[in-house]
Amino acid sequence: MRITFQSTVPYTFQTEFPQISSWPLDCPPDGSNKESRWEPPAGTDSETLKHYMGQYHTANLRPDGAAQANLEGKIRCAHLLVKHKGSRRPSSWREADITRSKDDASNIIRGYESKIKNGETSLGDLAVTESDCSSARKRGDLGFFGKGDMQAEFEQASFALQPGEVSKIIETQSGLHIIERLE
């Protein structure tokens, strides 16, 4: 093992690895499976983990100049999703089996809508810990999308918004959403 002291990585981070003939966890050295999986250690407090991931591991999805050319007709939105047992896929990164009723989901998302409208919090901050979509790790940011890329109700609501504007509660097959138009 070789420890390096670079300013871009923590001093305990190993940046050079010895040759390994058998890579663990189906992780080939050439990265050919293009998958990355991580499970928190047993006993990890989920609330602390959510806060940490939201604060230190969210993505900035602003495109560079080269990618900007491919964005004509596209918009960028973030959303907060609350699923219920009647949702298309009633599971999420937060809950393996979502059993709440549609009425319960509606009450939950109305509470979030109220907090956003009252300025108590932002959609992005709430999405990190409360959204049932995997985009939570990116503050709900879905990146850029065009017409025909999303479910009809979601698309219609998204394209009707101006940048910085937040939607009312939108229902799709996925569940209940609040959408914020970012760009």
TrEMBL record:
The answer to whether keyword Isomerase applies is yes
Q: Which domain of life is it from?
A: Eukaryota
What are the residue boundaries of the PpiC domain, all occurrences included? 72-183
Q: Which Pfam families match?
A: Rotamase
| EC number(s) recorded for this UniProt protein | 5.2.1.8
Single GO cellular component term: cytosol
The record's region (Disordered) falls at 22-45
Instruction: Describe the reaction catalysed, as an equation.
Output: [protein]-peptidylproline (omega=180) = [protein]-peptidylproline (omega=0)
One GO MF term: peptidyl-prolyl cis-trans isomerase activity
* Matches recorded under SUPFAM superfamilies: FKBP-like
InterPro entries (UniProt xref):
PPIase_dom_sf (IPR046357), PPIase_Pin1 (IPR051370), PPIase_PpiC (IPR000297)
Q: Quick one: a GO biological-process term for this protein?
A: positive regulation of transcription initiation by RNA polymerase II
Alphabetical UniProt keywords: Isomerase, Rotamase
Name of protein? Peptidyl-prolyl cis-trans isomerase
Query: Species lineage, top-down?
Result: Eukaryota, Fungi, Dikarya, Ascomycota, Pezizomycotina
